[in-house]
Amino acid sequence: MNFPGSGLIKGMWVTLVNGVGSFFDPQRSKRLITEQYPEERPKLAEASRSFPFLIFDNDPEAGIRCTSCKICEKECPPQCIFIEQDKDANGKLFRRPKVFNIDISVCMSCQICVEVCPFESIRMDNIYEMSSYDRFGSLVVTKAQLLKSNEYYHGIHPTEAATTDARIEAARIKKAAAAKVTAEKAAAAKAAAAAKAAEEKAVSEKAEPPQPEQTA
Amino acid sequence: MHDLIQKLTALPWDQSPQWLFLIPAGLMLLAAAAAVALRNLIHSALCLTLSFIALGVLFIALGAEFVGFVQLLVYVGAVAMLIIFAILLTPASEVSASNNPFRSFKLSRAVNAVAGGAVVALVLAGLFTAIFFSPRVRAAVPSPNAAAPVALIGENLLTHTLLPLQGTAILLTAALIGAALLAKEEKES
Amino acid sequence: MNLENLPLAILKAILDAFTWCGAKAGIVVPPWALTLVSILIVIVAILSVFLVMFALMSVLERKILGRMQNRYGPNRVGPWGLFQPVADGIKMLTKEDLVPRSADQIVHFLAPIAMVIPALMLPAILPYGRGMVPVELASGILYFFALGAGTEVAVFMAGWSSNNKYSILGAMRAIAQMISYELPLVMSAVIAALVAGTLSPNGIVMAQAGVSFGVVPNWFVFTPWGFAACILFYIGALAESNRSPFDLPEGESELVAGHLTEYSGFKYAIFFMAEYIGMFAINGLLVTLFLGGYQAPFPFLEWIPSWCWFFAKLAFVAFSMVWVRATMPRFRIDQMMQFAWKFMLPMSFVALIAAAAWHYAGRGLAAWGISFLIVAVPYLLLGRFCFTRRHTVDNRRYLFSE
Lengths: 216, 189, 402
What we know:
The structure holds 3 protein chains of 3 kinds. Chain A is an alpha+beta fold. Helices cover 44% and strands 14% of the residues of chain A.
């Protein structure tokens, strides 16, 4: 039966059935798709990123990977990173940052600092609930707030962390192998030098016959 | 003075209190004066609308409910809208003139104002005498069927004043067709 | 004391208490003071009922829309989100009231006032129950539409004073829509008044008393012409209160907010309130004219008080407006105009003829059949052939391509 207005009536029937049915549906939670926010958090994708953080292995003081080379500070487009290098007991510059501040009100999450870091020490976090009541002060995150363990990194970005760890492991093996080769070469060179010295001594001894045997 | 006005304006069926007449009437006069005096055309159109509303209220206060509501419905709802649309569609509304009431004093302007005021006073006096001293108004009596004025008006329209009613219908139809024709775009052929 | 007379009994009790207080203080309360107090109490009662309905409606509408769209509505503030209007009110009151510098300050200020005054005066003539009409006007229906005309001026004031091209465009479209749909609206109301023989709302409700053929209540909506007139009135009511699908003047994606663009904070809340109260008032008129007002459908249901019936029917009509909003997409302005002038106006005249035929054929079964034919045939013809003009486009001018 298709009279003018029948489409409207069919549409209204569909809406009514849908609306009333949503009260009696046993699968209500799947049908009503609203995510009740503070109780249910959204499931973020693995590569989602918000602001950077610093990684340490095992110890927040000694295991910090950052060597304050300041490459990320130079490469950051909005210049939101501020690094100050540490000085050891004698006043000599030490390869560790004393101050590492990121202004997250400026940071645009471009991930360039992550791409240029040679020491795999800065990575992107995915915490987005960082709002504050203060417009300036509490939006500058310091080193203590930025340092998070490698296990935490594995927790939020497993694939990326596995790749990074593999890369670090490979670099360590290569370095160890290279060191072994250098050590072997040094040892071989030392042995060769020692052999050569002994040979020269034998040659010089042969050239000069022993004199004390002729006097009687 | 008050007694004089009361004696002059006391009509046989005028039972409503004075303030019920004075407030809408005063508002209407004020709005009409503002409509004439204001520089901004839209402002003066809105003041004119206010005077229409006040006139409608006046009709209702005097007991003519039907006429009052129809005044509001037709004048405020349609005629005022028409005036405003006409103002908007003409370039005159874009001219913003200064609204300074204290312009420099010129003798010619003062003479104009006085002469205009005199003419207005003469016209009003003529209307006043015509209305309040006419025998027909004096002799009229309140309708016995005051409870159903709408039915009476309808009956009157369809029996005594049928010809003007049909004439108005033809006039309105012609106006509608004319408006539609004017608004129709010429097809380029 | 039965439930039916409860509101009037409360009013009388308050007036008696007032007199008693006066007597205790030694003054004899003059009759004009009693009238004044009774008028004030009635005004306060109606306004508070309508404002509470407005608040509830704003949250229930969102929840019902949500359920029909497979989501929850607001459910954070209060049980089931029912205190959301409180949060909304606080937000509206504390928002900064921005007025553009180039806007016409006086007219911009007066526009919400000019909008809300007619809206608040509208519910005065509706019969809420037996003997419960605040103002008994002989030409109440006319009063209603006269006030609706005042709303149009306010819309224009709002749009023009904002000095913003979207506002003025939105205001023009809103006024064009309101004027176009006022005609079928008034015609449908006139049809009901015609059959009832009076313009007084109470009289029209009284004319719908009783049951005919034993099962069908005498409400006008159950007659063919009354059904057509009710649908036309309903569509006109949707258009007059700028509700979806006629909310082009205030659709966000169309014209920012149309004539309401430059209004923020409390002034916007006033416009919002005026729109909703106008919607309730016109729904009340629909209930009065076509749905039998405060009368129960069958005599055995008379034990439910008449004012309960009125508000139940009003709630049903308001729910149906939310339902329509959830279902139908927005009209385009030219579609809206065509619909009003080419379909609704001829249908309203057809309904008038059908009503006259029904009356003169004796109001019986045969009359029902005749008027059904008179309504149905033009409806089918108009609906089928009204909008099927093929628009041939020739000489299309492409401005930016070869």
